[in-house]
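User: Can you help me understand a structure? I only have the sequence.
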Amino acid sequence: MKNTFKKNALGCLFATALLLLTIHCTAQGTRQSNEKVVRTVYAAYEKQDWNMLKSVLADGFTFTSPVDLKPIDIKVYQQKCWPNSANIKKFEIDKLMVDGDNAFVNYHCWTKDGKVLWNTEYFTLKDGKIQQFVCFFGPGVGYPNNKAK
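Assistant: Let's start by predicting it. Here is the structure, written out as tokens:
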């Protein structure tokens, strides 16, 4: 009976270790894939590739910023925000933090006319696509298509 208990205890310990390893690997894989999705946003702007960007936006996608306090949908986002891609030279991601289906990005962006922007953005992902995209920038800070400078 003592040997049976030891075998069962070792089996339970092994199963628990395997379960924890599986959970860790799954979480790590989700973090890496969500990070890749978020990085695709910046690559799409640098390459001026709308289809690349659209491929990572979920059905029901919304965007919010200090300019658009109410969330806008993908159609309005394409009309109002996507034209900025023509002014983007490059992004330098300073910090990208992913926690499950949430990501924060802090970056510097260089425009083709030499301006530098420093923004923070928050993403909510669902099933490997961006559901919500929120851009934060302070008062007086412009963005490439800002006409009221």
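Now, to help you interpret it: The chain has one domain: 2-136. The chain has a mean pLDDT of 81. Let me know which part you'd like to focus on.
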